[in-house]
Amino acid sequence: MNRFNLMGLAVGLSLSAAASLTGFSHVALAADTDVLKAVDSDHDGSIDLKEASAAAASHFAALDPDGDGSIDKKEAAAVGITDEEFAKADPDKDGSIDKKEFVALVAARFAAAEQDNDKTVDAKELASAKGQPLAALLK
Ligand SMILES: [Ca+2]
Ligand SMILES: [Ca+2]
Ligand SMILES: [Ca+2]
């Protein structure tokens, strides 16, 4: 390893130390920005419900690795859906979240993330504590 690499490593380490000290993860913020960019199909800098629903529908396949058309508890847990949330998201109680139920779950989280009543979730809202559950589903 040459001197330059060592310096880069040191800078990287101190950056991540600073991030953890402030309790603020640069990595998480970057990921949220990526989520916003990916979901914001009309590029107006925020996510509306239509964009969130479309992203949810196209994301569903990724969350359903065994491809049986529904997310089971294990698959749900992998994306941070708690048992309690799972129960709420599964109104027909068949033990799995189908695509329609998933889109509804995303809509519910969208409503929670949308805090200034402008009907869209902007970067700040998405990065907030109330926006994180929505971001987690659209990653
Ligand atoms: Ca948008
Ligand atoms: Ca169900
Ligand atoms: Ca908003």
Return the string of H and E elements.
Answer: HHEHEHHEHEHH
CATH 4th-level superfamily:
EF-hand
Major pleated sheet: 2 strands, antiparallel
In percent terms, what proportion of residues is strand? 5-15%
Q: Low-confidence segments, ≥5 residues, pLDDT <50?
A: 9-25
Shape: globular
* Biggest sheet: strand arrangement: 1-4
CATH class: Mainly Alpha
CATH arch. level architecture: Orthogonal Bundle
CATH topology: Recoverin, domain 1
Provide the residue-averaged pLDDT.
84
Can you count the beta strands?
4
What radius of gyration results from the CA coordinates?
18 Å
Query: Based on the structure, what is the oligomeric state of the protein chains?
Result: single chain
**Distance between termini?**
35 Å
Number of helices: 8
Summarize the amount of helix as a percent range: 55-70%
Ligands, deduplicated? calcium ion
Number of self-contained structural domains? 1
Tell me what the structure shows:
- The chain contains 8 helices and 4 strands; from the N terminus they run ααβαβααβαβαα.
- The chain has helices spanning 3-21, 26-39, 49-63, 73-78, 83-89, 99-113, 123-127, 132-138, and strands spanning 46-48, 70-72, 96-98, 120-122.
- A two-stranded antiparallel sheet has the order 1-4. Strands 2-3 form a two-stranded antiparallel sheet.
- The longest helix has 19 residues, at 3-21.
- It starts with a helix and ends with a helix.
- The model is unreliable at 9-25 (pLDDT under 50).
Short description:
The protein has eight helices and four strands; from the N terminus they run ααβαβααβαβαα. It has 139 residues and is mainly alpha-helical.
